[in-house]
């Protein structure tokens, strides 16, 4: 089962040069779920423990190493099977991207012929509110949805 995994990162209140994740999103086919990661007491560590380590689930996203490390260091959660989309695309079709890692917005434009622009004001607004607005939910869901769509187009994992 291919599941996309994304996070929205926000500036820390204590250290403006440090970014911390505030949401964790998962998407499978047309179903997406969003968790608040910050504040940490809202994060459902126990319910995610088995899901993240299940043999039959492969997690895909961009910059996965940061997400996997964060979950391991902050919550002692291990993501068993994870793949970075940009690396996998470069490996599976090197000529397609000229061996260069590209952001999600560029891949969406190239693969689906859709313009995908992320408004800066959404990223700079307060994502730590206990209840996210519908616009923020849609924004967080779109990244995860497109990653899931791209993962389904490419054969993963690549044979070594």
From TrEMBL:
Coiled-coil spans are none
> What's any one GO cellular component for it?
cytoplasm
Q: What is this protein called?
A: 3'-5' exonuclease domain-containing protein
Keyword Hydrolase belongs to the record: yes
Please list the GO terms describing molecular function.
Answer: 3'-5' exonuclease activity; nucleic acid binding
| Hydrolase found in the keyword field | yes
Which keywords annotate this record? Hydrolase, Nuclease
């Amino acid at each position: 089962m291919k599941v996309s995994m994304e996070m929205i990162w926000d500036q820390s209140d204590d250290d403006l040069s440090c970014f911390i994740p505030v949401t964790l999103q998962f998407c499978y086919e047309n179903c997406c779920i969003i968790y608040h990661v910050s504040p940490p007491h809202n994060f459902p560590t126990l319910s995610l423990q088995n899901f993240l380590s299940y043999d039959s689930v492969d997690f895909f996203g961009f910059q996965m190493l940061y997400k996997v490390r964060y979950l391991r260091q902050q919550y002692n959660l291990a993501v068993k099977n994870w793949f970075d989309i940009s690396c996998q695309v470069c490996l599976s079709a090197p000529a397609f991207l000229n061996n260069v890692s590209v952001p999600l917005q560029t891949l969406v434009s190239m693969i689906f012929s859709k313009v995908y622009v992320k408004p800066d004001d959404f990223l700079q607004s307060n994502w730590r509110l206990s209840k996210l607005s519908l616009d923020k939910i849609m924004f967080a869901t779109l990244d995860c949805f497109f990653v899931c769509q791209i993962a389904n187009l490419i054969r993963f994992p690549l044979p070594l």
